[in-house]
């Protein structure tokens, strides 16, 4: 009985993996148009439409003033705001400004640490989306060694 149960679970796992492999990866992409945008305004419009943004420096947005290597720029974002749906990172001077977008489940802690690529010195924006508003903070980062082939 034990061997039959193990084989059955293995077969179920193989079938589940095969079904998942048959699904195109585009299904998992949240917003192809936003990630393909070639300027910040286009990316923001694809993400949020015409929803107004409020400049807000009250949330923690850490990014170095000077990045010695543009291929690994550390970024930390956290907030105590209620009802955060997503946090997006945009780099104005990158060929595709939307670098990352994190979605949060209700009740989760809206914070993350990551690294982004920057091809040159630029403004970096963190946009927090709640159910009823958008909040943005912008920091300028000087890159001394390009990360996108520079």
Give a verbal description of the structure:
- The structure is a single chain.
- This protein is α+β, with helices and mostly antiparallel strands and 150 residues long.
- It has helices at 2-22, 32-36, 40-48, and strands at 53-55, 60-62, 66-67, 73-78, 84-91, 98-103, 111-116, 122-130, 134-143.
- It has one domain (35-143): SoxY domain (Immunoglobulin-like), CATH 2.60.40.
- It has three helices and nine strands.
- The chain is globular and about 60 Å long.
- The N and C termini lie far apart (61 Å).
- InterPro entries: SoxY (IPR032711), SoxY_sf (IPR038162), Sulphur_oxidation_SoxY (IPR016568).
- This is Thiosulfate oxidation carrier protein SoxY.
- Residues 1-29 form the signal peptide.
- Pfam families: SoxY.
Question: Briefly, what is this?
Answer:
With 150 residues, this protein is an alpha+beta fold. It is 23% helix and 35% strand.
Largest sheet: 6 strands, mixed
Tally of separate domains:
1
Q: What is the CATH fold-level name? A: Immunoglobulin-like
CATH architecture: Sandwich
Share of β-strand residues: 35-45%
**Uncertain stretches:** 23-29
As a whole number of angstroms, the C-alpha radius of gyration is 20 Å
Cα(first) to Cα(last) distance is 61 Å
Query: What level of helicity do the residues show?
Result: 10-25%
CATH superfamily: SoxY domain
Overall, the morphology is: globular
- Secondary-structure element string: HHHEEEEEEEEE
* Number of distinct helices: 3
| DSSP summary, beta strand count | 9
**Main structural class:** alpha+beta
